[in-house]
Amino acid sequence: MLSFSIVINTLNRGPSLQKTLESLRWLKYEGEFEVIVVNGPSTDDSDAVIQSWLPKIRAGRCPMANLSMSRNIGICMAQGDVVAFIDDDAIPEPEWLTQLAAAYDDPEVGGAGGLVFDQSGYTYQYEYSTANRLGNANWAAGGSASHLCFPASFEFPYLQGTNASFRRSALLEVGGFDEEIEYYLDETELCCRLVDAGYVIRQLPNAYVHHKFAPSHVRDDHKITRYRYPVIKNKIYFSLKHGRPYRDLADILEDNRRFSEGHRGDVEFHIAGGRLPESELEKFREENERAWEVGLARGMDSHRELITPEKLAAGRGDFHRFTPIHNADRKAIVLVSQDFPPNHSGGIATFSRDLAQALGAQGHIVHVITRSTDINRVDFEQGVWVHRMVQQCSERSPGAISLAVPQHIWDWSATALQEVRRIATHREVAVVEAPIWDCEGVAFLLDGEWPLVTSLHTTLHFWIESHPEMAEDAEWMRTFGQPMLALERQMMTAVQGVRANSRAIVQRIEEAYGFAFDPERLRIIPHGMGPAAVPAGTRVNKADAVQILYVGRLEPRKGIDVLLEALPELMHAAPEAIVRIVGDATEVGHVDYRKAFAERYAGTSWFGNVRFEGRLSDPELDMAYADCDIFVAPSRFESFGLVYLEAMRQGKPVVGTTAGGIPEVVQDGVTGLLTEPGDPVSLAKALSRLAQDAGLRESMGEAGRRHFEQRFTADRMARESHGLYALSRAGWEETVA
């Protein structure tokens, strides 16, 4: 089994370097590999990032902003059989090293590299390319060009620098990179010399890397080249070094003249479009003139600055194995959720994020399919591959037509199905999970290609209960309501696995929909959450008065009317208390509670103590939980109630109701107080009791935090999910056998 040295050459990209290093923890390779980071003369926090990874990685330093020099330092440090280069703004897919290693099955193979996604993560920046001895690239090669690998070939394959690997012995044989080429054509020039030395360059159809194309000292935030000197200089240098046996000097110079004129045209194009200032044209003239002067002089010179025995001796060190996340039962798991942070912060979005990140932290390859409002994009976030997809219009299948699946419901589910099929071309997908809301898994159910898990949340039936005006809309019920209710029933009874967050939601659904869940397919797994963004016990904005926090939509099901009805008695008992109401101020079909409150209580002494704050950003909400003394959510029904967990993990006592799954989360009299749903009198008493007793608030808050850590962490939720996925796959395998 080949050993690898992964070399990352970095310069002033601390944040993206951190992401690249983090992504290596998910590499799946049976052999050994080490990670070497060579830091250029960075002036940002790159040193701090590198220090935080020691001794897991090895670190080197390059004194100049010269990529070839930095790469040679990495080669001299490397002790693996193969040296693999990846940029400091790139993310490899888990199979990267395994697929690179498979290319080295012949000693003639000197280098291998795979496909490179652009910053979208969805379309390609690089597939297969060739270059000629003048340094001109052909980006439309269409396939591997190994047949051009013979000494003195005018055209030859080359590898993209962000996804390139080379046999170390071959690198040392040819002297590594030419340090005259500080940027641009560096890996092309190396591939040229390797081909001349008799080696084969293999361009692979996989070994994927995602290149996020961060700004640098050469290009700006809009990916516009701002420093063209090295590009033009090295094109001239390369063509003179390698092109003279094939073309007359006059032809080579004319080719370079066209190249530099093309750059001038590009500068003028961006100036005309307002993307560059007028001063860039004079800057280009100076850079171009210097590039020609230096490129000609050094290109006509026979000298090259390569790896020497002295450099090799100075860089030598011991191989240091990098340890990725180990999971012998690693699986590729797909979660479908059109709601996902940061664009959404509801219960399903929060659940999907916390489950995905916890599964990823355990070493699984986790994909989340969610909505995009602009383009298809794929990003690696907190150990999770997040696929943001634009919903496509799709013709309904015969099965979808027979089930009367509404077109927009089908369009999203079919869009997600198509993306999972694309994922499956990279790796085997073990299971797909989707929420019951909007029946997001319907296309997967009808397709049957993978085991499907449905997670139970608020269903349409319960939503209609709190929106009676929709039940009275006969046309809406005929065209959408009734078909979706029937479809929800089909989803809950026909899938291979069902996730329930509480016993209460199971009972309520069985009563409402008139069926019993198959106990062999059902697992009750309470929701869990990751650590709070604000450490528990931290008060961001201290206040003398007791702060009571409500978080939720301003609708009857969440009990906002009950809370407002309870305020006069609460304020009589605790007149200094501050009540913060966080959530959408109005909702179609319901009372404007903020307006109604103002009309009723504007003249009271405590009116200003009640603050309607609307929807808060995630950081603002985190601070609100940290600052409150009491959390209240008097819902008439909750299948679970993630808001209670958010408060408990901050060590806050909670006031809820006995409805639904809330008693399965809140221990009455221990972590908080439970009241009767819809009863403002009992709610006022519970809030008053806590507002007047600091000791009780503290003891219940501490008990709540302990209960959260013992029962409601995301890690626990993810681990309990393994059994659900296993039974789902077993059931699916029986049906396809």
Overview features:
737 residues, alpha/beta, Spore Coat Polysaccharide Biosynthesis Protein SpsA, Chain A, Rossmann fold, 8-stranded mixed sheet, 7-stranded mixed sheet, 41% helix, 16% strand, Glyco_trans_1, transferase, Glycosyltransferase_grp1, Glyco_trans_2-like, Glycosyltransferase
Number of strands: 28
Query: Can you tell me the residue ranges where pLDDT is under 50 for at least 5 consecutive residues?
Result: none
In CATH, the architecture of the largest domain is Alpha-Beta Complex
Instruction: Give the number of domains.
Output: 3
Task: Determine the mean pLDDT.
Answer: 94
Distance between the termini: 35 Å
- CATH class of the largest domain equals Alpha Beta
CATH topology grouping of the largest domain: Spore Coat Polysaccharide Biosynthesis Protein SpsA, Chain A
In angstroms, what is the radius of gyration? 31 Å
What does the model show?
By secondary structure, this protein is α/β, with parallel strands linked by helices. It folds into three domains: 4-213 and 307-315, Spore Coat Polysaccharide Biosynthesis Protein SpsA, Chain A (Alpha-Beta Complex); 332-524, Rossmann fold, CATH 3.40.50.2000; 547-712, Glycogen Phosphorylase B (Rossmann fold, 3-Layer(aba) Sandwich). The chain is 41% helix and 16% strand. It is built from 25 helices and 28 strands. The strands form five sheets. An eight-stranded mixed sheet has the order 17-18-16-15-19-20-21-22. Strands 3-2-1-4-12-6-13 form a seven-stranded mixed sheet, with helices on both faces. Strands 25-24-23-26-27-28 form a six-stranded parallel sheet, with helices on both faces. Helix 22 (642-648) links the parallel strand 26 and strand 27 (654-657). Helix 3 crosses helix 10 (309-315) and helix 19 packs across helix 23 (680-691). The longest helix has 24 residues, at 249-272. 48% of the residues are buried. The mean pLDDT is 94. InterPro entries: Glyco_trans_1, Glyco_trans_2-like, Glyco_trans_4-like_N, Glycosyltransferase_grp1, Nucleotide-diphossugar_trans.
